[in-house]
């Protein structure tokens, strides 16, 4: 551990390499003078020190590679020391993981890399390297093969694993492989011409290197096998060698031609059969060999890349056995043993026991022949096996000579009569026989399907897994050695391979977290042995409780057909909550369905442990605290003392617990239960009845089981399909841009952009690359845009297009203010418009959103357009955090999307201060309340119609009948009467007279029946109504024998006269006179009908009717909630049918997938925010929340929005993070694969000067006009000279950074300075909620909170900042003023990850003030672009002490700054300011 210590600032400034570093540590513009002797001296020092990691770290931190080694590399002149130094430095960069290993090489000399790679191969083959140096070179190759996205690296690597390496294949094997692929024979002929006699060293390496490398590894295995013990160097060499083989097999480009070579060598079988593999120290080697064996036999067609089906795997197995039987029948017809093999059926032959039995008695020569014919292994041509055979022959001859000499010495024991001697068996020959037999058996035995093995694996970790440091490494993994872990990289063989790697890594990461909880909680329980020898617990822990008795198994269901394990195991766990504090008791009562608890058996040791738990190794802990067994269980129900279920998921239906006793009903893992029963049958002690302790975990951290179950179910499901247009990219192959919308046949040529564009000018500026933009004059939104292709496209580029704009008018939806559609107010940039267009089109959209560039606004507008353009499609929104989903929903609700279609799934809604409850239960309750509100409106409407006794508002069904018979009837009648009266109201007397007569009761019953019948008509019935109106008109005209003028003067009632006068004066139209719903809409803004024109009033009337239609449509949507009688069914209906925009976190998507699939949930669009912060598999699962349609994914659009320049997903264990790359997001992998992205390029959050600190990291990031022109951005920060500063903080009381506990970093001087800065800003009038304090470490966060609590919280003059948290936690948030403490003074620490620095400097809008040790960070090469900008400003805090509120000083004007020398000076200035303000306040009083 000491050798791996990180170099401190003292090591860098004055260490052994400091003198050398001064040669190249000049400014970037000056090239350092190169002296080869410097490289030799440094390398000699490294070699003498055994290549200590600390030495290499120091050199890497001094930018040895970027500023000296690589710029001065010459392939012809470079020495071995130069070559190996570059490899060491690249390895260190990859090991660190926080910095780009290839960036400096790509920038300063990518064309030199092929020469370097070739020289390294020459150096290896020369045989001059030590074992340790070879190990470092192998590690370098591993890093190269893991970085195939770098084209200069890929070109060099793939040459070594090409078809030319097949010159070393067994001829029979090669011919078979060539015959199986139609394209390969022609390619092979070309390869033969070029490589039959290689003319260059490069060509020789391309042909021979991999085969020779395998031979060398196998030779080393034999060589090391002769040693009694293996040192670290030998073990590390072998482990890295196997790791390289694994990396070559787990990527299709290298696997395709390398695997046959590895198979011919039978590398795994020979390694496992070696003496090395039997050594005690070879446990990790054997675990790595298991992974290599897995990938060697992976179920994939190496040529096509297609996964093999069960049938194809079985056929391949039968083919091998048929080959064996043909060889036995043809070549060994006289052998009785092999004749039986030739005639046996497959089932009696392909088990390991049967094969060993058949091959055990065969002579060595027969085994050799079988290996050559069946396994393609010619012993005589393999260097290692040929040497073993020679050794065996020599041993045989030596044994025979010894036997002959023995007979000569003692002739009495000789048997002269028996001429034939029995052959002497030697150990060497037996070893060779065993090896050949194992090679045959390994090739011919029945394959174990990987899926079957996964199904048998328990999901919960047991004591064996949790406390195994080889499988779950300790936290302080340094990357100096291999691990038996899968790796997530650019490419995967199949989706099954992708899922399995994620499954294993996620399982181990969750196990590591569980181990952390156990080591934290169990010591608090203080297990002791009582007087009776039983285990008691003398302490208490928040998350642990003793069990009243062991677990009681209550039901074990029979296995499903074809399975051996039970289908379900139910049990009960009894707890007592007596004596617990109320808040802890409440936490135990919060256990819900699907929560996971852990059950332990602890047998207390005789001597209780009294030391520090942190000092215990992983393997020592269980013995120290007596952990015997560990099992997991999933909660189904929680019952109180009276048997009431208190774990109902709906808060409205949850009961108050009774008593102190609880019963937890759980599901045990069937596979683990079955294994435990078998172990009990073999004589081991029973597990479940002896468990005595239960542990719960925080719900947020306890989702692993559901996620693992989801991944496992996906591996076994035929529904695990991604859209065809995404499949190859997802696995890392093919054209990275193939999923772009304009490359797909489903591209939309016409899009309704609705309110996306503000005006015509906005359209003109939004399509800068269009050939032509056609916009008619005086258009107003909403807009439709049509895209027409203009000519042919250049290869790889979008075809030129013409943009044609048109507009339309939205229909009037009602007379109330809320009926007016809400419109977008954001003037989207051209890049945002492209992102929106891409998101609306089918295909993949990748949006890179730098800080403040409007990622959320863009996503929300895409949701808005999808909602309105595709009313039959559902949209799933996924984000990493609940806060991000909350931001999305707040903006979605502000647009023209009814909130009843929105749904939030998961528990996180409880943590948000949202006015509306969008959770499942909140939406159910909302719909039930909405039903009551709507029915009350129906009741009011019925009253206006004088409809009594029909219970129109009793149920939703009644309301629908009311709408049909009364509302629609009156509208049809209204339209009919308008037709009779005419647009000008000339015949108004005909319809008003009918209205007048109707109440008088003179209407005949037959006519009333006719009208009632008309009310039942739909739209088709309007024609009948018109005919009826014509009949009525004719009936009225018939008796009018007198002249019309005379009738008008004598018979017209007063209301007709008034109507005619209103029409004549223009104050009213015929529409307003006849409108049937006027009384209902009396609460709308009046006048309802302005009377400006017939058309205008008719539009208002149509809008009123649309309002009623929409009202009854909502009632129809509520009908299902009325019919379904319980919350569970209502919630399911909400998810599957009613909601159209469904949001959840990525974790909840994994938790609820099986439930959604069972409900037959369907969706068409996936939009994922914070994609760069989400784990690979947690990004993948949201694509599979539904069943496929006959093997085809229904998903039409996938939109990823994120920023790979900010922090990646959080992985707690460094081994899984750095070695397994578990912190890789799918988003970042797609970016590495060069998938085209839409890079938002204008920020509107921060002052331009602050944005300049991080804009260099992004592509063409500029500023919106608002941050350049708005007053709040132009004015300087009150009391502060600069909008940002780095304040250099020296040691406080002789101390810089401290560690009260390991990895808990604090810096009291910085904490005090930050709090003093906060207090000063509060005195300047800055609101506390506008200030946030950040730190890069949890220890400093705790210290800042303590200091604030002591100095500020109690004082209303100061209060507390909006937030005091870590940079990592604050990602995705922002505030006006940010105060940052960098803490470290000895080593840069994890701030060296540029992504963390980008997050740090991009959180502030108006002011950023960073406190730290400038001298530590300024020398860091990766951080130079930021710290060079900090360096341009004073490193002492500059204050404007005389400035007061209302100052008009602008940014850039420093005024009269007061330089703060140090922390005591700051406190004195602060006290003077406080005193002055108190005096001023007193004088006012």
SSE layout and pairings?
Layout: H1 9-14, H2 18-21, H3 36-48, H4 53-61, H5 64-69, H6 80-96, H7 103-109, H8 113-125, H9 131-145, H10 151-160, H11 171-179, H12 184-195, H13 201-225, H14 232-249, H15 252-265, H16 267-272, H17 283-296, H18 310-331, H19 336-343, H20 352-360, H21 364-374, H22 383-409, H23 427-444, H24 450-455, H25 463-466, H26 495-525, E1 527-529, E2 535-537, E3 544-546, E4 552-556, E5 569-576, H27 582-589, E6 596-602, H28 621-625, E7 627-639, E8 661-668, H29 670-681, E9 693-695, H30 704-716, H31 724-731, E10 750-754, H32 760-766, E11 772-774, E12 783-789, E13 801-807, H33 830-840, E14 843-848, H34 855-869, E15 875-879, H35 882-893, E16 902-904, H36 920-944, H37 956-981, H38 988-997, H39 1005-1015, H40 1021-1037, H41 1044-1051, H42 1054-1065, H43 1070-1074, H44 1094-1123, H45 1127-1138, E17 1141-1145, H46 1146-1158, E18 1165-1168, H47 1176-1180, E19 1197-1202, H48 1214-1219, H49 1226-1232, E20 1238-1239, E21 1242-1243, H50 1248-1255, E22 1262-1263, H51 1265-1269, H52 1271-1274, E23 1284-1288, H53 1308-1323, E24 1331-1335, H54 1338-1353, E25 1363-1366, H55 1367-1370, ...
Parallel strand pairs: 11-13, 14-19, 14-20, 15-17, 15-18, 16-17, 18-19, 21-22, 23-27, 24-25, 24-26, 26-27
Antiparallel strand pairs: 1-2, 3-9, 4-5, 5-8, 6-7, 6-9, 7-8, 10-12, 12-13, 28-29
Helix pairs in contact: 3-6, 4-6, 6-9, 8-10, 8-13, 9-14, 13-15, 14-17, 18-19, 20-23, 21-23, 22-23, 26-30, 30-46, 33-34, 34-35, 36-44, 36-45, 37-39, 37-40, 37-44, 38-42, 53-54, 53-59
């Amino acid at each position: 551990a000491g050798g791996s210590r990180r170099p401190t600032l003292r090591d860098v400034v004055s260490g052994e390499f400091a003198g050398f570093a001064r040669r190249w540590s000049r400014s970037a513009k000056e090239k350092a003078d190169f002296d080869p002797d410097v490289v030799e001296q440094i390398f000699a020092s490294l070699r003498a020190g055994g290549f200590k990691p600390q030495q290499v770290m120091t050199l890497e931190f001094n930018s040895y590679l970027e500023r000296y080694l690589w710029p001065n590399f010459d392939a012809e002149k470079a020495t071995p020391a130069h070559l190996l130094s570059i490899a060491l430095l690249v390895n260190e960069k990859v090991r660190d993981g926080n910095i780009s290993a290839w960036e400096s090489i790509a920038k300063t000399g990518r064309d030199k890399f092929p020469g370097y790679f070739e020289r390294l191969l020459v150096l290896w083959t020369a045989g001059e390297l030590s074992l340790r140096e070879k190990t470092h070179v192998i590690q370098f190759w591993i890093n190269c093969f893991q970085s195939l996205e770098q084209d200069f690296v890929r070109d060099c690597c793939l040459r070594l694993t090409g078809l030319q390496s097949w010159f070393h294949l067994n001829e029979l094997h090669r011919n078979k492989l060539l015959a199986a692929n139609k394209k390969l024979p022609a390619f092979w002929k070309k390869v033969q011409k070029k490589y039959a006699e290689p003319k260059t060293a490069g060509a020789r390496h391309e042909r021979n290197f991999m085969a020779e490398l395998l031979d060398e590894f196998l030779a080393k295995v034999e060589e090391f096998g002769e040693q009694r013990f293996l040192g670290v160097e030998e073990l590390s060499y072998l482990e890295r060698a196997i790791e390289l083989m694994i990396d070559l097999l787990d990527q299709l480009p290298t696997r395709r031609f390398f695997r046959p070579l590895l198979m011919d060598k039978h590398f795994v079988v020979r390694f496992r059969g070696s003496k090395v593999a039997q050594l005690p120290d070879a446990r990790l080697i054997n675990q790595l060999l298991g992974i290599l064996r897995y990938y060697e036999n992976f179920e994939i067609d190496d040529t096509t890349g297609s996964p093999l089906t069960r049938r194809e795997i079985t056929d391949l197995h039968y083919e091998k056995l048929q080959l064996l039987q043909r060889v036995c029948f043809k070549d060994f017809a006289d052998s009785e043993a092999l004749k039986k093999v030739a005639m046996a059926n497959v089932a009696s032959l392909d088990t390991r026991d049967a094969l060993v039995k058949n091959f055990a008695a065969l002579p060595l020569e027969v085994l050799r022949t079988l290996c050559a014919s069946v396994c393609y292994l010619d012993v005589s041509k393999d260097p290692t096996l040929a040497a073993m055979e020679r050794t065996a022959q020599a041993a045989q001859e030596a044994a025979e000579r010894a036997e002959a000499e023995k007979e000569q010495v003692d002739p009495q024991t000789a048997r002269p009569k028996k001429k034939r001697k029995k052959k002497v068996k030697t150990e060497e020959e037996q070893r060779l026989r065993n090896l050949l037999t194992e090679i045959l058996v390994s090739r011919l035995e029945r394959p174990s399907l990987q899926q079957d093995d996964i199904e048998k694996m328990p999901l919960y970790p047991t004591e064996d897994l949790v406390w195994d440091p080889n499988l779950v490494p300790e936290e302080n993994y340094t990357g100096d050695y291999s691990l038996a872990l899968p790796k997530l990289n650019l490419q995967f063989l199949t989706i099954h391979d992708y899922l399995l790697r994620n499954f294993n890594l996620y399982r181990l990461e969750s196990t590591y977290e569980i181990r952390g909880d156990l080591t934290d909680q169990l010591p608090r329980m203080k297990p002791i042995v009582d007087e009776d020898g039983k285990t008691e617990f003398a302490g208490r822990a928040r998350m642990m409780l003793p069990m009243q008795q062991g677990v009681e198994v209550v039901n074990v269901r029979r296995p499903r057909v074809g399975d051996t394990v039970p289908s379900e195991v139910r049990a009960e766990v009894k707890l007592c909550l007596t004596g617990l504090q109320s808040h802890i008791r409440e936490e135990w009562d919060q256990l819900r369905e699907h929560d996971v608890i852990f059950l332990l058996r602890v047998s207390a040791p005789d001597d209780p442990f009294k030391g520090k738990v942190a000092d215990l190794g992983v393997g020592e802990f269980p013995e120290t605290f007596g952990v015997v067994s560990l099992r997991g269980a999933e909660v189904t129900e929680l019952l109180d003392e009276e048997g009431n279920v208190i774990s109902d998921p709906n808060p409205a239906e949850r009961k108050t617990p009774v008593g102190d006793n609880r019963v937890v009903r759980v599901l045990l893992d069937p596979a683990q239960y079955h294994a435990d029963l078998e172990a009990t049958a073999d004589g081991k002690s029973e597990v479940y009845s002896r468990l005595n302790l239960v542990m719960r975990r925080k719900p947020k951290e306890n989702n692993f089981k559901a996620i693992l179950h989801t991944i496992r179910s996906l591996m076994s499901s035929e529904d695990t399909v991604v859209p065809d247009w995404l499949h190859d990219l997802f696995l890392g192959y093919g054209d990275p841009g193939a999923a772009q919308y304009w490359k797909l046949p489903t591209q939309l040529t016409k899009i309704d952009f609705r309110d996306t564009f503000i005006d015509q000018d906005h359209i003109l500026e939004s399509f800068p690359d269009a050939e032509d933009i056609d916009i008619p004059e005086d258009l107003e939104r909403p807009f439709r845009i049509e895209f027409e292709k203009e000519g042919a496209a250049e290869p790889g580029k979008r075809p030129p297009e013409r943009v044609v704009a048109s507009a339309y008018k939205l229909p009037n939806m009602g007379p109330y203010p809320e009926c007016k559609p809400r419109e977008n107010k954001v003037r989207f940039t051209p890049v945002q418009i492209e992102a929106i267009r891409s998101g609306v089109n089918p295909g993949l959209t990748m949006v890179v959103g730098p800080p403040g560039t409007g990622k959320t606004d863009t996503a929300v507008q895409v949701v808005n357009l999808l909602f309105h353009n595709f009313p039959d499609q559902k949209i799933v929104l996924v984000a990493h955090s609940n806060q991000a989903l909350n931001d999305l929903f707040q903006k979605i609700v502000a647009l023209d999307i009814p909130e009843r279609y929105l749904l939030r799934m998961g528990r996180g809604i409880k943590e948000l201060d949202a006015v509306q409850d969008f959770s499942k239960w909140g939406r159910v309750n909302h719909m039930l309340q909405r039903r009551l509100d709507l029915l009350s409106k129906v009741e009011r409407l019925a009253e206006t119609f004088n409809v009594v006794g029909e219970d129109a508002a009793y149920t939703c069904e009644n309301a629908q009948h009311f709408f049909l018979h009364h509302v629609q009837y009156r509208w049809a009648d209204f339209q009919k009467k308008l037709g009779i009266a005419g647009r000008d109201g000339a015949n108004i007397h005909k319809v008003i007279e009918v209205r007048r007569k109707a109440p008088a009761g003179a209407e005949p019953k037959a006519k009333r029946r006719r009208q009632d019948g008309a009310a039942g008509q739909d739209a088709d019935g309007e024609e009948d109504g018109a005919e009826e109106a014509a009949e009525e008109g004719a009936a009225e005209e018939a008796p009018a024998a007198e002249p019309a003028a005379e009738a008008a003067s004598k018979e017209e009632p007063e209301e007709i006269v008034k109507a005619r006068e209103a029409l004549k004066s223009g104050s009213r139209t015929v529409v307003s006179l006849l409108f049937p719903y006027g009384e209902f809409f009396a609460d709308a803004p009046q006048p309802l009908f302005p009377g400006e024109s017939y058309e205008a009033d008719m539009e208002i009337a149509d809008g009123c009717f649309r309002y009623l239609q929409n009202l009854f449509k909502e009632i129809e949507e509520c009908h299902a909630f009325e019919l379904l009688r319980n919350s569970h069914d209502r919630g399911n209906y909400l998810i599957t049918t009613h909601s159209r925009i469904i949001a959840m976190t990525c974790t909840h998507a994994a938790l609820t997938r099986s439930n959604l699939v069972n409900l037959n949930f369907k969706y068409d669009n996936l939009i994922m925010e914070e994609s760069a912060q989400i784990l690979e598999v947690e990004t993948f699962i949201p694509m599979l929340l539904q069943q496929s349609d006959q093997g085809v994914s229904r998903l039409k659009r996938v939109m990823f929005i994120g920023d790979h320049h900010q922090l990646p997903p959080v992985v707690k264990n460094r081994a899984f993070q750095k070695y397994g790359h578990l912190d890789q997001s799918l988003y970042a992998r797609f970016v590495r694969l060069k998938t085209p992205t839409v890079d938002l390029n204008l920020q509107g959050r921060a002052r331009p000067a602050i944005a300049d600190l991080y804009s260099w990291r992004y592509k063409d990031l500029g500023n919106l006009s608002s941050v350049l022109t708005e007053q709040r951005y132009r004015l300087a920060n009150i009391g502060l000279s600069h909008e940002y500063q780095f304040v250099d903080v020296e040691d406080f009381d002789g101390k810089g950074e401290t560690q009260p506990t390991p990895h808990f970093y604090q810096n009291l001087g910085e904490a005090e300075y930050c709090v003093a800065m906060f207090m000063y800003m509060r005195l300047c009038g800055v609101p506390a909620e506008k200030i946030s304090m950040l730190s890069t470490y949890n220890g400093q966060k705790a210290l800042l909170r303590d200091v604030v609590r002591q100095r500020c919280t109690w004082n209303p003059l100061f209060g507390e900042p909006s937030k005091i948290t870590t940079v990592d936690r604050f990602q995705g948030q922002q505030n006006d003023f940010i105060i940052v403490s960098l803490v470290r003074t000895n080593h840069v620490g994890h701030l060296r990850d540029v992504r963390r620095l980008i997050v740090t400097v991009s959180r502030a809008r108006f002011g950023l003030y960073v406190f730290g040790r400038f001298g530590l960070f300024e020398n860091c090469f990766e951080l130079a672009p930021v710290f060079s900008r900090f360096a341009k400003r004073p490193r002492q805090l500059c204050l404007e002490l005389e400035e007061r509120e209302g100052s008009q000083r602008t940014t850039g004007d420093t005024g009269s700054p007061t330089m703060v020398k140090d922390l005591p000076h700051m406190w004195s200035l602060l006290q003077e300011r406080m005193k002055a303000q108190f005096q001023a306040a007193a004088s006012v009083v």
